[in-house]
Amino acid sequence: MPLTDTAAAVTIDYTARAKKIAERIDALAAISEEEGCVTRTFGTAAFIAGCKLVKQWFTEAGLQTWTDNIGNVRGRLVSTNTEAKTLVIASHIDTVVNAGKFDGPLGVLMGLDIVENLQQTGTSIPFHIELVAFSDEEGCRFHTTYLGSKVLAGSFDENLLTKKDKEGIALLEVLQQMDCNAAAIAGDSIARQNWLGYFEIHIEQGPVLYENNIPVAVVTAIAGQRRVELVFEGVAGHAGTVPMDMRKDALCAAAEFILATEDFALHNKEKIVATTGKLDIHHAASNVIPGRVTCSLDLRSADEVALETANEAIRGIALHIAEKRNLQVHWNMIQQSKPVACDAKMTGLLAASIQHCNCKLVELVSGAGHDAVPISAVAPVTMMFVRCFEGISHNPLENAEIKDIAAAIQVADNFIQQLAINS
Questions:
Q1: What is the β-pairing status of strands 381-386 and 216-222?
Q2: What is the DSSP letter of 245?
Q3: Which of 70, 180, 215, 396 is most exposed, with minimal Cβ within 10 Å?
Q4: 372-398 b/e with 16+ CB inside 10 Å = b?
Q5: Between 250-267 and 304-324, two packed helices, what is the crossing angle to 10 degrees?
Q6: Alpha helices in 125-193 (DSSP H)
Q7: Residue pLDDT, tens place only, 122-174
Q8: What is the largest CA-CA distance in the chain?
Q9: Minimal CA–CA distance to 93: which of 77, 110, 76?
């Protein structure tokens, strides 16, 4: 079925559309767990309020709107084509602590703008569009990523329902507080045969576009990840009475591990990156030798072999340090994903749309994880990056300029048209 546009002659003001997106981003950013910054982690009162606002916008756009049983806000634009499949346009609206306001919401609200424009121009397309604001991509609260998108992909692990946050509250309890029915989660997936594809728009979270003053890029692949929780188990003791050479200091072991991991990653910087972003000293006190310390490891690479090799090498480093210091280390794999190649056909159409809109074509591999990762198991995926100030993300300085958002809208509009013609 061909694409039809009953208002093809109308001049489109992309700048005005970009400003409206920016206004919505500001309105959503005003909803936060803390004053003076953007923090909206999964299941909190601020998160629920943010979902309510997004759902209101979806409804006002004329979409069939609902919240599913993991808290995803979903809106559906139904095609007149009786044999239509579904294109999902999505990103997330949860944040890290003290976040920027564009990571996630930009993609959701640009998607909303795309479907609003289709409605306003009377454009008929041969597939359904489902717009999704994913509930949990960052994984901050339960230290596991992609809760929302895994439900759509049908790969949600029900064992996660018993997983607890740092306050001891289980995921199941949080879902109940959100009026979600955990027993019905499986029914919220989209069957593999009903997917047309997945399109995600996201700030780059890197400096390439900013440094070259290019508004958008096509993503060719997404790096694989390993997220590990390490627990160093020593012996707590009095800081004034235990001799230095007789201590089993878990914090010193963790510190040595962190620096050794950094050194390993620096020597393999062409293939991997490794980060420890979380450190927890159990029963911390200034006059107590730490007996138990938990730290995180975030390991990433676009090369699957390099990722696995590094994972085993760093695990060996942890074991060696523990043995040398006469203490124990527990290596708990929290989350892992293989590198993902974006779909060749959809990515080709997106690249052609970028060139059609007179933008220089830039192809990038994403070192950051995205909801496209779990979706790629059931559907072809494609992603577009938007230029971000100095490549800064997960930081209040995060910013995307109106001119770059406007350029991205134009490319996205053309991509939907090309997808309609070629589907």
A1: antiparallel
A2: G
A3: 396
A4: bbbbbebbbbbbbbbbbbebbbbeeeb
A5: 150
A6: 147-153, 171-177
A7: 999 999 999 999 999 999 999 888 999 999 999 999 999 999 998 999 999 99
A8: 83
A9: 110
